């Protein structure tokens, strides 16, 4: 087995690294980059012009003593890694096979991986666990239980180890299995939380100051923090996620909804619950001919098939950066967004938010619309989206509604009580609006769309895909016959 390897960079500089059979190649890369004053996150290793799997050890890689490894620069764009987290039996309740699976960029740290899996369930707690001490006298003080992640034959438990990215562990693509366990420490839980907070402030810098009136104070010493990450919807999904009555242009003669300004900090339009249990869109008549494919549809479909079957090169870093700038400029041009909040009794309140408004401002506005007895109850807001993902909107003053949460046009948001924190009385209540808003609510009028009259003179063209032309075989045509001289040649 190799007792040392030689790492050579593009300028032919050499770094000799001492190794053992169980030493991971990711550590070899880190030591070589340290000696050559390079960043290990931007480089990989090659042996005999083949990419080396950094997650393997020297023994599994089959490197001989004195093997020469080439230091190559990796792509700046992070790869996607499928992670399976094997949790202990005590945490495996309700988890299929005791494994949590998700996909992460290769530049994600192990700590963020644990936090993401932790936020996926309300009762999961991987990073802020406390266990009572039974060996000392007292009322049973809580001591910190440290997470330990096992990758291959390596154990990573300290904060420095858990700040390593998946790429530093050798996972730039493909899949990986992480085994999670917990180890009791002698550090009190509150002191451990202060140490963790101080460590992240020293690494990432102190958090930006926020408005204490609109931002809830987060207690790091509490157990499982449930704050799911918001995944923005694509632009096309947001555009189609609007309700039927919102997307239709209003008739000039139809009066605009009356806006109420004396009870809330923003002008608000309030609508009564629908009188019928059947949605208005379900009562609209449709024309079956609207679903009949035309020649234009066939042409567009064939064009898309040809485009998708054509080989195209990947975008360069400059092109990706230009796309990001173009996308940012497009969202910066959006001045405001109209958000309609639908409450449990199907009543709704609508108002507009600007570029500088945050998710915390949205929660503050909704709280102003509630009756006084329900304002202290914790609630959540969800964006259903076009595909029904029902994404949670976090109560965060650092998340802007337009630039961060990608809300534009008219968006429908559903109001719901927090099942883990709200009282039973609140969860069983349907009517939650203030009496002033209920008294000034108006009926939501859905404009009838006039049907399109079919023109009998233009029946359209019917396309029979996959069928041959059979006009010549019908009564009006004659079937072409083979000439006699050609039959004679075929017999020879």
UniProtKB/TrEMBL annotation:
GO-annotated biological processes: intracellular protein transport
Biased composition range(s): Basic and acidic residues: 466-476
Residue spans of biased composition, Low complexity class: 245-279
Record's compositionally biased regions (Basic residues): 481-492
Residues spanning the membrane: none
Residue span, TUG ubiquitin-like domain: 8-71
Assigned GO CC terms: cytoplasm; nucleus; vesicle membrane
Region Disordered, residue ranges: 202-222, 234-283, 444-492
Protein name, as recorded: TUG ubiquitin-like domain-containing protein
């Amino acid at each position: 087995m190799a007792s040392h390897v030689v790492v050579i960079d593009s300028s032919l500089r050499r770094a000799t690294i001492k190794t053992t059979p169980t030493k991971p190649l990711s550590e070899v890369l880190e030591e070589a980059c340290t000696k050559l004053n390079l960043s290990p996150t931007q480089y990989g290793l090659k042996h005999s012009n083949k990419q080396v799997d950094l997650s393997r050890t020297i023994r599994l890689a089959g490197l001989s003593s004195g093997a020469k490894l080439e230091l190559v620069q990796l792509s700046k764009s992070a790869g996607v890694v499928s992670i399976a987290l094997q949790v202990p039996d005590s945490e495996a309740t309700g988890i299929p096979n005791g494994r949590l699976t998700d996909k992460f960029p290769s530049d994600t740290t192990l700590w963020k991986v644990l936090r993401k899996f932790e936020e996926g369930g309300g009762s999961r707690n991987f990073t802020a666990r406390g266990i009572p001490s039974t060996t000392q006298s007292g009322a049973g003080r809580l001591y910190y239980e440290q997470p330990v992640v096992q990758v291959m034959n390596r154990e990573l438990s300290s904060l420095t180890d858990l700040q390593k990215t998946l790429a530093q562990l050798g996972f730039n693509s493909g899949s990986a299995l992480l085994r999670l366990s917990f180890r009791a420490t002698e550090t009190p839980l509150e002191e451990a939380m202060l140490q963790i907070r101080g460590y992240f402030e020293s690494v990432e810098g102190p958090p930006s100051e926020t408005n204490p009136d609109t931002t809830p104070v987060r207690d790091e010493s509490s157990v499982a923090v449930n704050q799911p990450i918001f995944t923005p919807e694509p632009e096309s999904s947001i555009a189609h996620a609007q309700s039927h009555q919102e997307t239709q242009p209003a008739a000039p003669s139809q009066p605009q909804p009356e806006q109420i300004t004396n009870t809330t900090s923003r002008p608000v339009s309030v609508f009564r619950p629908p009188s019928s249990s059947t949605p208005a869109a379900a009562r609209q008549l449709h024309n079956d001919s609207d679903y009949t494919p035309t020649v234009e549809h066939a042409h567009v479909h064939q064009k898309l098939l040809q485009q998708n079957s054509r080989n195209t090169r990947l975008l360069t870093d400059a092109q990706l950066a230009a796309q990001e700038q173009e996308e940012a400029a497009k969202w910066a041009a959006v001045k405001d967004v109209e958000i309609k909040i639908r409450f449990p009794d199907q009543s709704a309140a609508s108002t507009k938010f600007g570029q500088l408004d945050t998710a915390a401002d949205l929660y503050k506005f909704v709280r102003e619309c509630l009756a006084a007895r329900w304002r202290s109850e914790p609630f959540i807001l969800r964006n259903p989206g076009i595909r029904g993902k029902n994404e949670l909107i976090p109560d965060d003053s650092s998340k802007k509604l337009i630039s961060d949460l990608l809300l534009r046009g008219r968006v429908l948001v559903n109001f719901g009580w927090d099942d883990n924190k709200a009282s039973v009385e609140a969860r069983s209540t349907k009517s939650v609006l203030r009496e002033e808003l209920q008294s000034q609510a108006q009926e939501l009028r859905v404009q009838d769309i006039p049907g399109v009259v079919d023109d009998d003179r233009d029946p359209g063209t019917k396309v029979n895909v996959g069928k041959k032309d059979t006009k010549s075989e019908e009564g009006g045509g004659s079937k072409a016959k083979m000439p006699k001289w050609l039959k004679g040649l075929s017999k020879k």
